[in-house]
Amino acid sequence: MPTRGNLPEALVQAGIALLDEDGTEALSLRRIAARAGVSHAAPAHHFGGLPGLKTAMAIRGFQQFQQHLMAARDAVPADAPPFQRLSTVADAYVRFAGMRTGLFQLMFDQLAASDPDLLHTALGSYLLIKELCAPFVDGRPAVAVETAVWSLTHGYAALNLDRPRPSDTQVATSALVDALRLIID
Amino acid sequence: MPTRGNLPEALVQAGIALLDEDGTEALSLRRIAARAGVSHAAPAHHFGGLPGLKTAMAIRGFQQFQQHLMAARDAVPADAPPFQRLSTVADAYVRFAGMRTGLFQLMFDQLAASDPDLLHTALGSYLLIKELCAPFVDGRPAVAVETAVWSLTHGYAALNLDRPRPSDTQVATSALVDALRLIID
DNA sequence: CCCAGAGGGTTTACAATGTCAAGATAAGAT
DNA sequence: ATCTTATCTTGACATTGTAAACCCTCTGGG
């Protein structure tokens, strides 16, 4: 379905779908274009080239990422202890990386390219982590706690990318929760 | 200098040099072969193809990585507190990632491919971290502490890949050291 | 002495990729 | 009605990884 009238949107969706289904190495400009039902040169007109399309996909990825984390945060009861909320979101972080490996890698690859729009979108996820860390900054500088939590979670996710996690068990990331506890209190 | 008589070695060296000088996107089988002074089909004879050559490069990368970490460890005085030794090596970890970004990315990309030789080589670096963590496992399970330190350090390195660090200042990674302290004691 | 075979490299060919230039097509504006 | 502009296609090109066929050069057995 070519989705005429909104080709950029269709291309981003096709690219992410291709990434989810066939992995990073199967991603190519021509395949994305074919999937969106247009010629291989069409993407250049909207994104300049493959790099541009990839950053657009990364931006969309960070939006979905933040949405995923927020859903996890909102799923924990309002009267639950703050640490449970933090660890649940961290678990969601790792789970996202495990379930959507290709997109996750693309996101943080492109992040190094320092596109302003991309950075702005990624900031949203950071602010979410920041908010969850707030209850745990006692006298310490907030940035230190946030960096610790963010780095720990991201490192855990990155190092376990080869082991995709099932979507039902919480046990998989218990080591991460333990490590978070070490940092927090 | 074609380095006749040991082409596999020459190819790995050429590939890593290309990675260090021109970055990930400039890495190609044909360029590596040209740099080693052979035809573009020669690598296939020894490594089967580009994937094989890349895992060989990743193995060499982990060897250099471990060597880099060990050098940092041995540079701190023998009577220094264990935490200083740990934080110094963690600093070296981040510095390696910042200075040799392309190789670092390749290493952990290929790690997901689960090549036995590569895993065995990478294990050496893990054992080094493990050894440095030993003084800090009080009653806690050792694996938890190691995973925490390793994940935190790796995450910090990965998230700061775009900001290459100067080789002289220790200040850059003070946030990491603070976070490590949070974990350790 | 010679020559058969094998390992190491080259040459050639091929399909796939990203990018660019030129053209086609349709919708609006003047 | 004609011009313009955005959108997309077509065609071409250089570069890439891979595979097959060929060619050297050395070594070991007769």
TrEMBL record, chains A, B:
Q: Is Transcription among the key words of this record? A: yes
Tell me the PROSITE patterns matching this sequence.
Answer: HTH_TETR_2
A GO molecular function term, named singly, is: transcription cis-regulatory region binding
Q: Does the keyword DNA-binding apply?
A: yes
Extract the Gene3D superfamilies matched here.
Answer: Tetracycline Repressor, domain 2 (1.10.357.10)
The organism's superkingdom is given as: Bacteria
Protein name (record): TetR/AcrR family transcriptional regulator
